[in-house]
Design a protein that fits this description.
The complex is a heterotrimer of chains A (304), B (956) and C (216). Chain A is mainly alpha-helical and 304 residues long. Chain A is 70% helix and 2% strand. Chain A has helices at 5-28, 33-55, 75-98, 104-127, 138-163, 165-194, 202-206, 225-228, 236-252, 254-264, 267-291, and one strand at residues 213-217. Chain B contains 26 helices and 37 strands. In chain B, strand 1 and strand 2 form a beta hairpin. The chains are: A mainly alpha (304), B alpha/beta (956), C alpha+beta (216). The complex binds ligand MGD (2 copies), iron/sulfur cluster (SF4) (5 copies) and molybdenum atom. One iron/sulfur cluster (SF4) binds at residues 74-77, 80-82, 100, 117, 119, 121-122, 133, 194, 196 of chain C.
Chain lengths: 304, 956, 216
């Protein structure tokens, strides 16, 4: 597939927002309300940026409001509901914490549920397309959750370092655990994807069961939606470089960085850990989208 | 909704143009039309985009003073100015030396009009595109059986059981052939395709027989060998309907050696086509006048006439001739195994024999014998340029015609069927002028510029044997160039050989690009000046509808209308759309008004002819005879009072007559009211065996369709060829070829067909250039002219060279990679596409996809000019001549056109090539490269970024 | 059973002429699905919207090669994965005749349905930014203004080899259903259980009778 940057930013930003909110909510009872408020606000801002990015994906953004209609069948529609719901609840939680409302804990709990639901929705947008075999697995949800949590926790560390220092090491520890867990799961999913046996073949695509079938012409020499949307156009080497990059930036480097940041008491280094990891996760998401091989590509292989 | 006739190609389907708010909503096939029964092709469905092309010319253009040809710098002028210029120039030429004006036309279908104009003007230098198209197909078959494939006849797939298609990619009969093949296959017929490449029609063949290009002659001769050996021929048919039983003079001392003996005791009946041949009657043990009542021709053996002359039946000569053409011999040449050749012959022979059927149609033959039924032999063939477009094509085509005749399939159900006005005489009676005095100032030619030579006496040459025509047609170089040699005109005119022209007018042909061989050089010649600083071709007029590559080289550009904007006629005097069961003609009637100042070329011709006061266009008092083209079509007759004109429908004052009758002023309206088509269905007894059908012949003569009613006996043994050969051998009184061409004539003019390697292969080292390169017509593109079509160019916007993976791999070429293809004459950089559907010795590409930058109003960096390529750069128009040198002191001695030595058919598919990979550091761009053509005045100022065609307001 | 309109494409006679491609474009650009835009129509590399494409495949190796022309448009799946994923309901399958359509007024151009179609037959119109696909010429087939014989998709009427049969595949008497039954009609990528309504009829070889040795 050709990864759309809007989708890359949408999913990474809201993932971080969800992870951050969950992290902050979990630690809120042990910290000053300012920490919870700030964390929730940052989460809302990230989610809003993600939402903004998503508009760039739409051909007709002015009609975006229509997209909630099919929540009964469409994970995308469900996401479209879950995301604002999460944002609203997170914001409400921030407000409740700020004004010290007794409902804060309950609102926060519901917001956590919303974050979880949102993970399910987002992941299932991809996982539910059964013929995109790279996506259609439990790994997709696991990855989305773990990476969201890892990046959220990683972000919680500098936040805590400033507003709730007593929690900083805990968050750092949790971030490291989550990052390593995400690495393990992502590595497992990469291993799985490397072994995928394609259910669709050129033979099943055209219904002719002969060992040698090749497309000679896709039927036109011009450009078309189907030759753009579904092909990333990056060489195997290029893909390999992206893979190494995202593994390093997203899952390896942040670990020493966050530990070093804590040891040195440097918020700057902690922020660097966040940024490095985010960059890695952007690369990861790009790779995730790109790596999916769409069966439609069997029909669009050669011009002649 | 209005009906008219499509012209997105030459197939001429009936279309319905649906308008909404005066704009074209869509165009579909007319279900009531006999050609296409409502279907339409990819091109026809894209007619809207032709109409809206930004490349449309809309004003007459004159080359800017001081600008170079090819630079495409023009200023718009008025039609009045254009006509003044032309009239003045042409009148001067006509009054001095009319042959200095040459009119050559391309993909048009109005040769009845343009030919008339040329003849009336008095120039012999007229032809249409046939010489570079498929003249071998036309001539090879017409000189054998009086008809051909293509627009003249075709396979009767409704009744056939076996269909063999040879060398056809798409052809003119585009939609009807598709309709017919589909029906045929669904009815369980077996379809075999013989073609180096398997695409299009061949794709759905039950069997594909890949063949090396240019070798079909060998295959066909071997098939004949096998049919003869297995005695699978139709003896009855050969004996009665072909000249197989004619006794041929075997006396080497005779001036008629090798010609059928004429029986001087019987009346000739027709001086042009003597009917007094002899048969050998076995029961009597002696010769008898042919078709003597009760006699039966012996077709085998060796006899002596009463006067002692040794003779053999022509068929015997054929049998002897093909004896050496064994399947093993052909296998070596064609790459098809002997086993397959044998099986193929058996399949043809047994299907024709065992699945024969009778139609209960009573008919009377030309010799008065009544037949109870018409026999069907369900083996049908179709062939096109794969056979024709080789310099050995004439003989291959003749071999095919003979094969079809031996199977007894001519104008019979299930086999080959003629379409009116065919069958025509063998050869047709129209002859070109035969001496230079035919060309006189201010005088029309006495005969049409093009015709059908039957012997050296019909050649159009000077006393010394040199050509009179600029293209050297009907000279000893190409004696039966019945369609002219358009592909030689520019080179000859540039060289001044045989002489220089003054004005060259080109209509509907892209001679600076895809219809020319040796394209780069020809472009240079068009722009070349002599020592006097003047252009070697002084004045070039181009009538086109689009900014083609050719328009750049014009001095004067005349903007034509499109097919939706003009009146047009598919006339029985030209190439009508006849059906097997009778003559059919059709018209175009404007559906939308002309764009800008566009004017139909038909109107230009009528206007020019009137201004020049050409006799046929002028009243006795000197006044103009025809108001315009529609008026001309209605009122012009072949001769005063003949009642035969361009159209056969709704003649007579009230429109009640068909075929012939006085003019009907409302004829156009009646066509318009009847789907623009007129079909005369013949009685069943006139529909078959027309070469020898007495009833049909009488009808055809009555209707002015034929001059003579004599039967048209199939010439499996060609008298015409032998006449030329005798001249070369010096056995025949009268004209003899000049010394340097004697050997050539003697070698190639054989009364029975033979196989020889194409001329190019005779001069090129096969080891150095091991492959043959050919092109194919894409079904969704018409030559060069659809690149301006926004929809079609998305299907074929650039092309690849298709190479068998084995062949490509050996040259280190990867699929999709850049490569070079080189011939002895040029080289082209292009992209490769692997294909398992091409014979390993052949490489091929889609025809005419590559374009010059800026032409057709495409962006200069358009795929067409950046990635697409033209194979023509590799194809030479001339070959070094073999054999004895030319006429003493002649500079032309060493060159001969890359054309069939008999017909002048351009040898497109003979080019020998080799391939290699492009170096990794080479630019990913095609070569050769040409300068960018600027937008010419009158074309759309800016091409749109978006096209979102939607007609009208309402949805649906 | 409920009606399910569809095309049945006969690969035994399709010659790959592209008539169905441009006749489709021509009908639809001024029809319900129109305009079907073309970006840079005369430019370097145009990009246009087409609802039907004809492709070419080669089967086997020389000389035993089959060339297969393969037209492909929306298959109007009976279980269309493209429909439930659409967040707006713009993509829908008509209960009355099984045609899968896009409501261009609702579509937000999110492309999700195209991702969810394994067959690559949906095209986002580059100019209007809404999803286009074969409509089975729904604006023709019920048009009472057209004569009965012409209430068929544009591509079906155009096809010179009559390789495109149109009809209700749930009606066993229809030409389409009969062709599927009698000619071993098959569906594409059955592995995804989308149950395409469009079917393809395979090649059939008429052998030499009596059969001779095969070609070299
Ligand atoms: N390599 C190679 N070359 C070939 C062939 C091949 O097989 N291989 N085939 C040869 C054959 S058979 C042929 S017939 C020729 C064809 O070649 P051409 O005769 O050159 O035919 P086209 O390229 O179709 O277009 C001729 C011109 O007609 C113009 N035209 C289109 N419509 C109209 C109209 O309505 N009025 C006027 N006045 N002009 C119009 C176009 O703009 C174009 O400039 O090519 C020959 N060249
Ligand atoms: N769509 C479309 N239709 C057209 C045209 C067009 O440009 N586009 N052009 C029209 C014109 S002007 C013409 S003349 C006709 C031409 O109609 P065709 O003759 O059908 O067209 P070509 O493309 O020349 O096809 C020649 C075929 O012969 C094969 N071939 C080449 N060499 C040999 C050989 O030595 N032996 C055998 N057996 N086969 C060989 C090629 O592979 C190819 O399949 O088409 C007309 N129809
Ligand atoms: S075959 Fe030729 S005449 Fe017929 S519809 Fe197609 S383009 Fe028009
Ligand atoms: S129109 Fe018919 S024959 Fe032509 S490509 Fe389409 S389905 Fe095949
Ligand atoms: S072919 Fe694709 S677009 Fe059409 S119904 Fe099936 S899944 Fe949907
Ligand atoms: S692109 Fe349009 S039709 Fe497709 S899923 Fe999105 S809203 Fe639905
Ligand atoms: S049914 Fe209509 S919309 Fe669908 S491919 Fe055919 S012409 Fe196009
Ligand atoms: Mo031609």
């Amino acid at each position: 597939m050709r990864p759309a940057w809007s989708v890359v930013f949408l999913t990474t930003l809201i993932g971080a927002a969800q992870g951050l909110f969950l992290a902050v909510y979990a630690g809120a009872v042990h910290a000053d309300a300012r920490f919870a408020v700030a964390g929730a606000v940052v989460a809302v801002v990230l989610a809003a940026l993600g939402l903004l990015a998503s508009f760039f994906h739409l051909g007709r953004p002015e009609r975006a409001w229509r997209s909630a209609a099919m929540w009964r069948t469409s994970w995308l529609s469900r996401e479209v509901i879950a995301l604002p719901a999460f944002m609203a609840l997170a914001a409400a939680y921030a407000a409740a914490m700020h004004w010290d409302s007794g409902a804060a804990i309950a609102i926060g709990a519901v917001a956590c549920v919303a974050a979880a639901v949102l993970f399910v929705c987002t992941a299932n947008i991809y996982a539910c397309i059964r013929f995109l075999q790279e996506w259609a697995s439990g790994f997709t949800l696991a990855n989305f959750v773990l990476m969201g949590c890892a990046s959220g926790l990683m972000l919680a560390v500098p936040l805590a370092a400033v507003l709730a220092p007593q929690l900083a090491w805990t968050y750092a520890f949790a971030a490291v655990v989550a990052t390593l867990a995400a690495l393990a799961v992502r590595a497992a999913s990469l291993a799985r994807n490397a072994r995928i046996v394609r259910k669709s073949t050129i033979q099943s695509a055209i219904g002719i069961h002969h060992p040698v079938v090749e497309q000679r012409s896709q039927g036109f020499t011009a450009s078309a939606f189907n030759t753009r949307e579904f092909f990333h156009g990056v060489s195997t080497d290029g893909m390999q470089r992206v893979r190494v990059t995202f593994l390093l930036l997203g899952f390896v480097l942040p670990v020493p960085l966050v530990i070093a940041g804590m040891k040195a008491g440097s918020v700057a280094i902690l922020c660097a850990a966040v940024l490095v990891q985010y960059a890695g996760l952007v690369a990861e998401r790009w790779f995730f989208l790109a790596q999916a091989t769409h069966p439609q590509n069997l029909y669009y292989q050669r011009k002649a | 909704m209005k009906t008219t006739t499509c012209y997105m190609c030459a197939c001429r389907c009936g279309i319905r143009v649906h308008l909404r708010d005066g704009e074209i909503r869509y165009i579909d096939g007319n279900p009531a039309h006999p050609v296409n029964n409502g279907v339409i092709c990819a091109k026809g469905s894209s007619g809207i985009m032709k109409q809206h092309s930004p490349a449309r010319l809309t004003q007459p253009l004159l080359r800017k003073p001081g600008s170079e040809r090819g630079a495409a710098e023009f200023e718009a002028i008025t039609w009045e100015r254009a006509f003044e210029l032309l009239t003045e120039r042409l009148a001067k030429i006509r009054a001095t030396d009319p042959k200095k004006f040459a009119l050559f036309t391309g993909r048009d279908q109005m040769q009845a009009l343009t030919g008339l104009f040329a003849r009336q003007f008095g120039t012999p230098n007229y032809a249409a595109h046939g010489g570079f198209c498929s003249v071998n197909m036309a001539a090879g078959m017409i000189y054998t059986m009086g008809g051909s494939f293509w627009e003249f006849g075709g396979p009767d797939l409704d009744s056939a059981k076996l269909f063999v298609m040879i060398g056809t990619a798409e052809d003119h009969h585009s939609n009807p052939l598709k309709i017919a093949i589909s029906k045929f296959k669904r009815a369980g017929g077996r379809f075999i395709s013989i073609n180096p490449i398997r695409t299009g029609y061949s794709a759905i063949a039950d069997e594909w027989i890949p063949i090396r290009p240019g070798t079909d002659g060998a295959l066909l001769l071997a098939l004949i060998h096998e049919l003869v050996a297995a005695d699978l021929i139709d003896h009855e048919f050969v004996a009665r309907y072909t000249n197989g039983g004619f006794l041929v003079d075997m006396d080497p001392a005779s001036a008629r050696y090798g010609l059928p003996v004429l029986d001087e005791s019987s009346p000739r009946q027709n001086d042009m086509f003597p009917q007094n041949h002899l048969w050998w009657d076995a029961s009597r043990g002696s010769e008898v006048p042919n078709y003597a009542p009760g006699a039966r021709a012996e077709i085998r053996g060796e006899f002596t006439l009463r006067d002692g002359k040794p003779v053999k039946p022509a068929y015997e000569l054929l049998v002897e001739h093909v004896r050496e053409f064994t399947p093993e011999w052909a296998a070596e040449i064609t790459g098809i195994s002997a086993e397959v050749i044998r099986r193929l012959a058996r399949e043809m022979g047994t299907t024709a024999r065992d699945q024969a059927f009778e139609l209960p149609i009573r008919w009377t033959d030309s010799w008065g014998v009544e037949h109870e039924s018409v026999t069907g032999r369900p083996v049908a063939f179709h062939a096109m340029r794969g056979l024709a477009a080789h310099s050995n094509g004439f003989h291959s085509v003749r071999s095919l015609a003979i094969l079809m005749s031996l199977l007894g399939t001519i104008d019979r159900p299930g086999g080959f069927r003629h379409k009116a006005p065919y069958p025509r005489a063998i050869p047709p009676s129209a002859k070109p002028p035969n001496n230079p005095d035919a060309v006189q100032p201010n005088k029309p030619l006495a005969s049409t510029p093009l015709g059908w030579p039957a012997s050296p006496d019909d050649l159009f040459i000077h006393e010394d044997g040199t050509p009179v025509r600029i293209d050297k047609a009907f000279s000893w170089e190409y004696p039966i160039a019945v369609h002219g040699l358009m592909h030689t005109v520019i080179t000859n005119a540039w060289r001044g050989d045989p002489y220089r022209l003054d004005t060259l007018m080109i209509f509907m042909a892209n001679m600076a690009w895809n219809s020319t061989m040796n394209t780069g050089e020809v472009r240079r010649m068009l722009n070349d000046r002599g020592d006097d600083g003047e252009y070697r071709i002084p004045f070039i007029v181009v009538c086109d509808a689009f900014q083609s590559e050719m328009t750049a080289f014009a001095d004067l550009v005349l903007p034509d209308t499109t097919y939706l904007e003009r009146h047009d006629v598919m006339s029985v005097l030209d190439r009508p759309i006849s059906e097997f069961d009778g003559p059919t003609d059709s018209v175009r009637i404007p559906v939308v008004p002309p764009k800008g100042e566009c004017r139909p070329f038909q109107e230009v011709i009528v206007e020019l002819a009137s201004r020049l006061k050409l006799p046929a266009f002028t009243n006795a008092d000197g006044s103009r005879r025809f108001r315009d083209y529609p008026d001309f079509v209605v009122n012009w007759e072949t001769s005063p009072g003949s009642g035969v004109g361009f159209l056969t429908g709704w003649r007579g004052a009230d429109g009640s007559l068909s075929m012939k009758g006085p003019a009907n002023p409302r004829q156009w309206e009646m066509y318009a009211a009847n789907n623009c088509v007129h079909h005369t269905k013949l009685e069943p007894e006139l529909q078959y065996m027309r070469n020898w059908n007495g009833g049909y012949m009488r009808w055809a003569v009555d209707m002015g369709q034929r001059k003579f009613g004599n039967p048209l006996v199939i010439q499996i043994y060609s008298e015409v060829m032998q006449e030329f050969r005798l001249a070369a051998q010096g056995r025949r009184p009268g004209r003899r070829p000049p010394g340097h061409l004697r050997e050539r004539i003697e070698r190639y003019f054989t009364p029975l067909p033979f196989y020889y390697p194409p001329l190019e292969s005779q001069v090129v080292d096969a080891k150095e250039f091991p492959l043959t390169a050919v092109t194919q017509r894409p079904m969704a593109m018409y030559h060069s002219w659809d690149s301006q079509n926004a929809w079609l160019r998305q299907i074929h916007g650039h092309n690849y060279l298709f190479v068998n993976p084995g062949t490509a791999g050996a040259a280190g070429i990867v699929d999709g990679g850049w490569m070079w293809i080189e011939s002895p004459w040029g080289q082209v950089r292009c992209m490769a596409r692997y294909s398992e559907a091409v014979e390993p010795g052949t490489v091929w590409t889609w025809n005419a996809i590559g374009k010059a930058p800026g032409a057709w109003r495409l962006a200069p960096d358009a795929d067409e000019s950046r990635l697409g390529f033209l194979l023509n750069h590799l194809i030479t128009d001339e070959l070094p001549a073999r054999g004895p040198a030319g006429p003493a002191g002649s500079s032309t001695a060493a060159r001969i056109s890359n054309s069939d030595p008999i017909t002048g058919q351009a040898g497109w598919y003979d080019v020998r090539v080799r391939i290699r990979a492009a170096k990794p550091d080479e630019e990913a761009k095609t070569l050769p490269e040409f300068g960018t053509m600027p937008a010419v005045p009158g074309t759309q100022k800016r091409t749109p970024t978006w096209l979102a065609y939607f007609v009208g307001e309402g949805k649906a | 059973m409920k009606k399910q309109l569809a095309l049945v494409i006969d690969l035994n006679v399709c010659v790959g002429c592209h008539a169905c491609v441009t006749s489709c474009k021509e009908w639809n650009t001024s029809g319900l699905a129109g305009p079907l835009s073309d970006y840079l129509p005369y430019g370097k590399e145009p990009l246009g919207t087409f609802l039907n494409r004809v492709q070419t495949f080669e089967v086997g190796t020389f000389p035993e090669t089959q060339t297969v022309h393969f037209p492909k448009s929306c298959l109007h799946c009976e279980d269309p994965p493209c429909v439930p994923v659409c967040p707006t309901g713009a993509s829908y399958k008509r209960p009355e005749d099984g045609i899968v359509l896009v409501d261009y007024d609702k579509c937000i151009g999110c492309k999700y349905c195209a991702w969810a179609c394994p067959y690559g037959v949906r095209e986002l119109d580059a100019q209007q930014k809404v999803m286009k696909k074969c409509t089975l010429c729904v604006d023709r087939i019920y048009d009472a203004k057209l004569p009965e014989s012409e209430r068929k998709p544009a591509c079906v009427l155009a096809c010179p080899t009559n390789a495109r049969l149109f009809g209700d595949i749930h009606d066993p008497e229809s030409e389409a259903a009969r062709a599927i039954a009698e000619r071993d009609g098959y569906a594409l990528m059955p592995e995804w259980e989308t149950r395409p309504a469009n079917h393809y009829l395979p090649r059939r070889i008429t052998e030499c009778d009596p059969p001779g040795p095969s070609s070299s």
